[in-house]
Write a structure and sequence with these properties.
By secondary structure, the protein is mainly alpha-helical. It has one domain. The protein has 14 helices and no strands. It is globular, with a radius of gyration of 18 Å. The two termini are 21 Å apart.
Length: 286
């Protein structure tokens, strides 16, 4: 009982940090996305150093596992930051939070012994309906309707869902290895920045926000989440994760000065409802 409570606290800590990710991304949207992703991930990877200094074996993982970590951490965050600057951020953030639903729908493709049932199809239709409401509702605002930025938002959701599922197929790795994933991903991103993006000056305020992002949603949250999953009930923790789009959207609206509209509220309810429906139906089938 105590272990389950501790696991839920770890999960809530990760969720609280993830709530700030989209808002920080908007506040730093003037920084090129490769540079933003690289610096933040490198800062987050520093949290693993105490564990690695104590035991260097913590970072000895197969090359395929490292490649999976880069795919998840680098690919997801780069596409999310692209989406937040090329589509209305509140709506793009909601589309990105289709990833819990994708985990349920894609599970049969990635995991042996998992089947897709009719209720999963209903949840998928409800979730995509919510995304459609968010995208179409954006046409009522100053930002306009459809934007190509919704495409990377959808792609980021797919990447995080597939990454999360594929981690269940590889050999278990230490939590500290997440720092390796973030460090290599950060270096790769900075190399892409050097080759593809213009140089920019980073102000003191920017460095402070980058540190908050790196040590929080792109650092500490990953370690807390891994700790929660390794010591608690993944199904219960999965349900808790649906607090993230609610908190993230509310904070993003506050930061961006967007008023609550019917389309945003309806889209949020549909997407979170679909994710909860899919997760509960999956847990009953186990």
């Amino acid at each position: 009982m105590l272990a389950a409570m501790q696991a839920n606290l770890y999960a809530l800590g990760a969720i609280a940090l993830w709530v700030s990710l989209a808002s920080l991304g908007v506040l730093l949207k003037h920084i090129p996305p490769f540079l933003l992703t690289g610096v933040a991930l490198l800062m987050g990877s520093l949290l693993a150093l105490p564990f690695v200094i104590k035991d260097r074996l913590q970072w000895q993982v197969p090359a395929s596992t490292l490649a999976l970590g880069i795919y998840g951490l680098f690919g997801y965050h780069f596409l999310l930051f692209i989406a937040l600057r090329h589509a209305p951020p509140v709506e793009a953030n909601l589309v990105n939070y289709l990833w819990p639903l994708f985990m349920v729908v894609l599970a049969p493709l990635f995991l042996a012994g998992v089947q897709l049932r009719a209720v999963h199809v209903v949840a998928a239709l409800l979730g995509f309906g919510g995304a459609a409401v968010a995208i179409l509702g954006a046409g009522n605002g100053a930002a306009g309707g459809w934007s190509w930025g919704f495409v990377p938002a959808l792609a980021s959701a797919f990447i995080w869902a597939s990454y999360s599922l594929l981690t269940q197929r590889v050999k278990p790795f230490p939590t500290a290895a997440i720092g390796l994933f973030g460090g290599v991903s950060g270096l790769l991103s900075l190399l892409c920045h050097w080759a593809l993006e213009p140089a920019v000056a980073i102000s003191g305020r920017d460095w402070l926000l980058l540190a908050v992002m790196g040590l929080g949603p792109l650092g500490g949250a990953f370690f807390l989440w891994d700790k929660a999953l390794k010591s608690g009930d993944a199904r219960q923790i999965g349900i808790l994760s649906y607090l993230t789009p609610l908190g993230s959207t509310a904070l993003l609206m506050l930061v961006s000065g967007r008023p609550l509209s019917w389309s945003i509220g309806l889209a949020a309810m549909m997407i979170m409802g679909a994710a909860v429906l899919g997760t509960r139906s999956r847990s009953r089938s186990r």
